[in-house]
Amino acid sequence: MPAAARPSSAVIRDFAHLSRADVDLAGGKGANLGELTAAGLPVPGGFVVCAPTYAAFLDANGLRERIGELLDGLDVDDTAALDRRSAEVRAAIGEAPLPAAIAAAIEEAYADLASDDDPAPPVAVRSSATAEDTATASFAGMNETYLNVRESAAVTDAVRRCWASLFGGRTVFYRAQRGLPQAEMEIAVVVQRQIAATRAGVMFTIDPASGREDRLVIEGSFGLGETVVSGAVSPDRYVVAKRTLAPLAREVRRKELIVEPAAVGGTVERDARPEEAEAPVLDDREIRLLADLGRRIESHYGAPQDTEWAFDGDGQAWILQSRPVTAVGGAPAPGRPAAGDGRGPVLLRGLGAAPGSAAGRVRVAGDRDAASELAAGEVLVAHMTAPDWVPLMRRAAAIVTDAGGMTCHAAIVARELGIPCVVGTSTATADLHDGDPVTVDAGAGVVRAGAEPASAPPRAAPGASPPAAAPPVTGTRVLLNLSEPSRARAAAALPVDGVGLLRAELMILEALDGTHPRRLIDAGRGGEVTDRLAAALTTFASAFAPRPVTY
Questions:
Q1: Closest C-alpha to 419, from 427, 429, 409
Q2: H/E element holding 137?
Q3: How many CB atoms lie within 10 A of CB 153?
Q4: HSE on the CB side for 269, CA within 13 Å?
Q5: Are strands 305-311 and 199-204 parallel, antiparallel or unpaired?
Q6: What is the Cα Rg of the chain in Å?
Q7: Closest Cα partner for 280 from 197, 204, 222, 350?
Q8: Cα torsion at 344, 347, 351, 355 (round to 10°)?
Q9: Residue 58 to residue 468: CA distance in whole angstroms
Q10: pLDDT at res. 339
């Protein structure tokens, strides 16, 4: 059946029949790929195995009740119990039979991607949870992706493994910490043509460290983009003026690892040749080309975006994903003393990837088991972090890595958690030692010897929260745009005059724990929707009182 004949299917939906309004059907990744396709961006084709398909699979096997039994009341801070229960859920999903109609629909959609020249085309199979890649949560690297998958049976198996990844220990922990549901969370799966990328990476349409909106930041390396998003390499970094597309800064770094598609499926890693490792990933024309695409994407969405890009062997640029930026830093405070002005000597330099400074004793972790020994308030030092480290990363006063760039796992998670982070130092795990007192100053991108007072954001007092300082003198009032009740207290402590725009979409997402309001209303729970939204509005009003909040 041709792809165009499936616009209304609840099992399979092609990118051409999706938009950003379809998050409840296609998840964050799938909805955004549909939106980018409709906007005329160069997106590799594909389809989404929709969230109702996953729900039908659970219901056919009675798995939703089993998941609730295993996860309800689970203490996610008990790492051993978390790992054990999540493994039991994944095993149950792996053992349950796949209904024949679902398997046939996936195989038929995959066959539509084939051609006479390539009857088993390579695809990337990517999880797309319904609360993933939204403005409230990134789920950075937590749900699984399988690259260069070939043959219909392998695609179907990868879809099932993506469903199971919704219950990895790190993902269960993350949902619990953000107040998201466990058994009721739904997931779609993206199946997208695999680009044989010669170069790939990420692009922010805002500087995520400083928060400057007049710049774009591009990071990239050779081969597939896996090395960049995982932090396996310290990527090249290019800063671009958004208005003129002129390159403002270049950092060409040594990129020692390349991930490439394997001929039989999957991927292979190889060491970069010396001339590859030191070569720049992009030239000026390619920088401008990507920056122009980034500017178009931001204009289309009307908000800063975190995108993934790739160049194929013919030099064609592709956009593989776009998502809202979930957290950004702020510019260093004026008058901050320079490194070394009465402070400890600088031990390491890197890229300040999450703002702030914090002090603590070093804990060097070579793997997750070693990281589990991290005590609250210590500085986590690692070659790189991985998604299953998230429950442990929350304990850290700061994070320092050998490798990685602005969009590596450590950077994204640190920004979401509000933990100072310096990445790409190259030698942190060799130069720092367990128990050493250090200060991580992410604003300056350095690690200094000795413990210094941390720079922490002002905390809101209980109850009504007047501004922590006098607002700057301006010709107009200084008002915030807000959307998330969980951030109301911290925002209210800023020197602002109130909220000029309280946006409904993200407030609803957080207040209803990621559930679509129509689903609750159809289930006869309309009163609950009203009560939850009223509580969310009250959170904003009480935090800012007596300052105005405009909804």
A1: 409
A2: none
A3: 11
A4: 9
A5: antiparallel
A6: 23
A7: 222
A8: -30
A9: 50
A10: 37
Angle made by CA atoms 173, 179, 183, in degrees to the nearest 5:
70
Binning the chain into helix, strand and coil, the percentages to the nearest 5 are 35, 25, 45
* Cα–Cα distance, 59 to 57 (Å, whole number): 6
Q: Is 301 helix (H, G, I), strand (E, B) or coil?
A: helix
**Which residue bears the tokens 């720092």?**
432
Is 18 in contact with 30 (CB distance < 8 Å)?
yes
pLDDT at 270: 93
Measured between alpha carbons, how far is residue 291 from residues 197, 205, 378 in Å? 18, 8, 38
CA distance 463 to 545: 9
Q: From CA 99, how far away is CA 82, in angstroms rounded?
A: 29
Query: Closest by alpha carbon to 321, among 72, 24, 82, 41?
Result: 41
196, 167, 208, 201: which is closest to 184 by C-alpha? 167
Task: State the angle between helix axes of 51-61 and 23-38 in degrees (0 to 180), rounded to the nearest 10.
Answer: 160
Q: What is the pLDDT of residue 43?
A: 97
* C-alpha to C-alpha distances, 54 to 10, 62, 152, 185, nearest whole angstrom: 10, 12, 18, 10
Separation of alpha carbons 72 and 182, rounded Å: 8
Q: Is 26 in contact with 12 (CB distance < 8 Å)?
A: no
Specify the pLDDT at position 243.
94
Q: Which two tokens mark 225?
A: 């983009």
Percent of the chain's residues with pLDDT above 70: 86
Cα–Cα dist 161/146, whole Å: 9
What's at 535, amino acid-wise? A
For the chain, the residue count is 551
How is 361-401 classified by DSSP, letter by letter?
Answer: EEEEESSHHHHTTPPTTPEEEES---GGGHHHHTT-SEEEE
Answer left, alpha or beta for residue 368, where phi above 0 means left and psi between -120 and 50 means alpha.
Answer: alpha
> What is the SS3 assignment for 22?
helix
Instruction: Evaluate whether 1 touches 39 at the Cβ level (below 8 Å).
Output: no
pTM, 2 dp: 0.64
Regions of the chain where pLDDT drops below 50: 1-8, 132-141, 331-341, 456-472
Q: What ranges in 456-525 are assigned the alpha helix state H?
A: 488-492, 504-511, 517-522
pLDDT of residue 316: 96
Supply the pLDDT for residue 232. 79
Amino acid identity at 76: V
Residues taking part in catalysis: 409
- Asked if the bond preceding 471 is cis, omega within 30° of 0, the reply is no
Which residue from 164, 184, 189, 154 is spatially nearest to 92, judged by alpha carbons?
A: 164
Largest interatomic CA distance in the chain: 72
**What are the residues whose beta carbons fall under 8 Å from the beta carbon of 108, sequence distance 6 or more?**
1, 12
